[in-house]
Amino acid sequence: MSTLVTGVAGFIGMHTAKSLLSKGHRVVGIDNLNHYYDPRLKKARLTQLESFDEFSFFKTDFATQSFVEEFTETHPQIDQVIHLGAQAGVRNSIDKPQDYMKSNLAGQLNILEYCRNLIEKNNNFKKLIYASSSSVYGANAKIPFSTNDRSDHPVSFYGATKKACEVMTHSYASLYKIPSIGLRFFTVYGPWGRPDMSPYLFTKNILDGEEINVFNNG
To answer: Which residues are the active-site residues?
Structure first.
């Protein structure tokens, strides 16, 4: 099976691609290697994938206007798309909302259009799996969370873009019969994790003997 993984140099993207490659799948990975955090970490993650013969990497931005046409022409035989690329970071979305509009909304639309083209050209297209976020639940006080909980009141702009992605995808799934699965990730951690996530920040502050910043009562 041939899989396109967006955000392949990211934490979840790298592990997803490595798992697929280990099972003998062909993986086409794309990432724009932006500077939201040190791109050297992203490049180091890519070295974990480059030893696989069935892996190919393209540095590109899926949110640009030219992406859909160009990638449809060069990669018309993708069997499934795992869309993990996005502008991450809840707090950063307050300061730079335009970045999130472009990457998360325009980017999601481009991926949906690409999948639509794949279905028209490739009868073997299986599905789109994309990253949503637990941020869509907003200030929900009910624990544990459930997919049946309300998700129409996100309190961050990042969460708002992720909810919009879910609605857009639902529309395309209905209009063009694109099999789609959205994954509402909570805090993800582990080897090769993002340096802006709490497990890394807590550990660094403890080792440096510094106080841990607590937001919104923890």
So the answer is: 158
Are the C-beta atoms of 111 and 83 separated by less than 8 Å?
yes
Beta strand pairing status for 2-6 and 180-185?
unpaired
Q: Using CA atoms, how far apart are residues 41 and 137, in angstroms rounded to an integer? A: 30
Q: What is the pLDDT of residues 56-88, one digit of tens each?
A: 999 999 999 999 999 999 999 999 999 999 998
Query: Token pair of 192, please?
Result: 């090769």
Say how many residues make up the chain. Answer: 218
* DSSP code at position 153: -
DSSP character at residue 137: G
Q: Which residues contact 132 (CB under 8 A, 6 or more apart)?
A: 162, 163, 165, 166, 182, 183, 184, 185
Each residue of 173-206: pLDDT tens digit?
A: 999 999 999 999 998 999 998 888 888 888 889 9
Q: Is 210 left (phi over 0), alpha (psi -120 to 50) or beta?
A: beta
Q: Which domains does the chain have, with CATH numbers?
A: 2-193 (3.40.50.720)
Closest CA to 84 of 144, 3, 188, 8: 8
Distance from C-alpha of 192 to C-alpha of 188, rounded to nearest angstrom: 11
| Two tokens, residue 60 | 């590109």
In the numeric block, which tokens belong to residue 108? 């999601």
CB 116 within 8 A of CB 164: no
| Band of residue 217 on the pLDDT scale cut at 50, 70, 90 | low
Contacts of 129 (CB under 8 A, 6+ apart): 80, 81, 82, 83, 180, 181, 182, 183
